[in-house]
Every structure is written in C-alpha cells, then in structure tokens.
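FW: tagging you since you asked about this chain on Friday. Here's the raw sequence from the shared folder, copied in full. Didn't touch anything.
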Amino acid sequence: MPTPTPRPSRYSGIPPTERLPAWLQRPVGNASALQGVQMVVRQQRLHTICEEGRCPNRAECYAAGTATFLLAGPICTRSCAFCQVEKGQAPAPLDGAEPERVAEAVQLLGLRYVVLTSVARDDLDDHGASLFTATMAAIRRRDPRVAIEVLTPDFWGGHAAIAAAEEAQRRRLATVLAAQPVCFNHNLETVERLQGEVRRGATWSRSLGLLRTARQLAPAIPTKSGLMLGLGETHDEVVAALEALRAVDCQRVTLGQYLRPSLAHLPVARYWTPAEFEAIGALARDLGFAEVRSGPLVRSSYHAGTGAG
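HL: got it, structure written out here
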C-alpha cells in the first residue's frame, strides 16, 4: 500500500489564540458517550468527520444516537482553506472492508441515524460514489431500520470536456441516489464571492447544479445544504445564497459559525451573534425551506435525525 503524501502545509501545530465569544464556549458534554464512540471508531479503524473536524457537538450527537462517518480515508484531494481534514495528492487505495467495518460500528453503537460523508477522491474513477452505496448496503443488511443521510463531494472532474464532466457527475450522483438515502446533502459552504478562496477545487455553479440534478433524479429524496458564516460575507450575500438554494429546490439548510481550526486556515472575519443567527434562520424559513438549523454551533449534521427546528 503506497504511503499517502500530504501536501505541504503552513500548519504550525498551534491553534488560533483569539478568544471565542461566550456563546461559542461549551462544555465537553456527555463524556461517556464521547469515549464510547471514540473507542469503537478506533477499534474498527474508521474515521468520523466529528473527530477529524473537531466538531463541538460530537458528544451531544453521539449521546442522541447519531454519528457522521468519513469514508475513503483521512486524506482529501482538495485543499479547501477552512477544513481540518488532511490534504494530499496520493491517498491510499480504498479499503474494500471499510463498508462492513462501518456497519459493524453502527450496530455496536446502536445508532439510529447515520450520516455518511467522504473526503474528495478526485483520483478515483467514480469519485467514491460506489463506496457510499456499498456502505449503505452493509448497514442495512445488519439493520434495515437505520436511517442514512449522505453528505457528498461534488463528484466533479476527470474529463477535459465540460459536457463529459457533467455527464460523469450525473452518473456518480445517480449511483448514490439509487441507494435511497433519506436525505441528500451537499454543502455550498459560503457565498458566491468567497467560493474561490474558501472552496479550492469546487465552484458555486457545480454545487448548485448537483443539488438541482439531485431533485430531478430523485424528487422524493429531500436535498440539503449548509453555509458557514463569519468568513467575510455580508448579510445580503447570505440572503442571495439562500435564494440560490431555493431556486434549485433545496429543502433543508444549516447555518453555523466558521471556527478557525488552526493558524494554517482562513481567519475568522467576525462572529455572528445568536440573535443574528436566529434572524437569518427565520428569513430562511420565510424563503420556503422546510427544515432550518441556524445557530453559532450548528454544523451540517447537527440534529440531522430530528425534525425542523
């Protein structure tokens, strides 16, 4: 197995030193739930975005019977400037046993709602689409009652011609949707003006196109997207992003505060207050989103298995 070769990074190993506002400081929470999930994940040699991304809500979600598994290894072929996941151009080959290990972890933990996400794997012919379906099938063989949401990359790339790339993206997306997840999630992450700086390798139009196509291919499966606030966007730009998501019939949205993982990542431009999150969440509901999660600590999979709030 070839050794992954991470890209050079400016990471200093020192976390940001700016003081967080009081509303972003929260206790660890249910320590036993946190330790229990971490133990099973380590035993099964798996990764979760909860841990890789240092999500502040992971203990709460674990205690509620929800977890987000990170498929296809810990090395991402994209270099998004906000993300804690390690980057590299030569990830290890896919592990064919990973779907069964995820399924066993889900069973051992008694999870009721599972979110499957993955690093971007532009090096693979199908960009990891078949890994999503294999993992869903493995979980359902053990317990068909488990609800499974998917949070995918954009499945873009591998073709020089735009038309061929679009067709390949559609084919990969169709593969995942055919497995009938309970929700299809793909994050827009930020407003249109900041896409190039924040989401290196992804684009605004491709992401909106993916969400639009998901509605066309599987109208019974709700679509979802998320935005991080605090990267320098304006209120009007956030509204425009929400309107763009509704224009492609996205039904669910999450809005949360960007937190800088390290000094190697983009700095926080400002911290949105709880009142501002409440107001922008209300606006999203007015625009027609069926489910809205809006708050400083909200993340893509936060309360994923519960109703609108």
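FW: Residues 1-15 have pLDDT under 50 and may be disordered.
HL: agreed, and The chain has ten helices and nine strands.
FW: great, closing this out.
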